[in-house]
Amino acid sequence: MIDPREPIVTPVPVEDLRPTQITVGMREVELKRQMIRAQDAKKKTGAFLGRHMVPVVLGPKKRNYVTDHHHLARALLEEGVKDVLVTVISDLSALDKDAFFFVLDNRGWMHPFDENGRRRDYSAIPKTIGALVDDPYRSMAGELRRQGGFAKDTTPFSEFIWADFMRRRIERNAIEKNFDKAMKDALALAKSKDADYLPGWCGPTSD
């Protein structure tokens, strides 16, 4: 096991990173790409990457499995950035593949749900960051948090939990047709009592 108090930071090729989820919100990826482009010099880009290290778990064959910042990793890939700094939070490279995925799942380091919110077999998780599938509800959840619909929370994959809440209440074609209008509906839903069990809920209370 890696001591989290003394993280090992090392550059890794972005294209070699392995995801631990099936989807990303491509609108979120585009926002990350804009952030990267805003770094107009190599020095600034280096500082940006230094503030956005990607946490990974070492799996079989010492492969780097991303446990967070999938959107940043996909944005870096699409922007042609070759390497990213990673910090190893756990070394599980001694495990076989089945045991490795089981441990990831049970520690909350994996989200094997597809763009329709359905749980899939571990084999459905893409082998590359570039193969991640778009889930517009994940983009909605990211924007919802930025607009104050819910607070940042330590619950693993909290944005996906919010995405699934919205998936059951807002039609996908409504998001694709008019994202801003759908966001108004999402904000209203986020403040409702129906959402009070979700991580980071900050709706009105009677206290």
From TrEMBL:
Transmembrane segments: none annotated. Pfam families: ParBc_2. Signal peptide: none annotated. SUPFAM superfamilies: ParB/Sulfiredoxin. InterPro entries: ParB/Sulfiredoxin_sf, ParBc_2, UCP029669. This is ParB-like protein. It comes from Mesorhizobium vachelliae.
